[in-house]
Amino acid sequence: MNVIIIYDITDDKLRRQISEELKNFGLERIGYSAFCGSISKKALRALEQRLNILIESDVLHIVPLCKFCFQKIRLLGRADLPENFEDFVL
Questions:
Q1: Which CATH number fits domain 2-73: 2.60.40.1930, 3.30.70.240, 3.30.450.30, 1.10.8.60?
Q2: Which of 5, 30, 45, 72 is the one with CA 20 to 30 A from 82?
Q3: What pLDDT does 87 receive?
């Protein structure tokens, strides 16, 4: 499953923890508070459980995208796709 995860975390330490959790699950940073990647449903459930423990008053959005929608992502400006972006849409 392809996902985009964006968050608004006010505490620097917590924001770093969230970022590390997302990296540990194989997701790649696409912005200061945004990640994307491919993740199994089982791993996503485990990630959600872990993040739910960490997040109390802030917000995190997990946006699942089908292959077709993921392929329609358009980047403007000088944005870079993750190195393995092609893997997400194959």
A1: 3.30.70.240
A2: 45
A3: 56
Parallel, antiparallel or unpaired: strands 59-65 and 34-38: unpaired
Residue 24 φ/ψ region, left for φ over 0, alpha for ψ in the -120 to 50 degree band, beta for the rest: alpha
Computed over every residue of the chain, the mean pLDDT equals: 86
Q: Between β-strands 59-65 and 2-8, what pairing exists: parallel, antiparallel or unpaired?
A: antiparallel
Q: Is residue 37 within 8 Å of 28, Cβ to Cβ? A: yes
d(CA 64, CA 5): 9
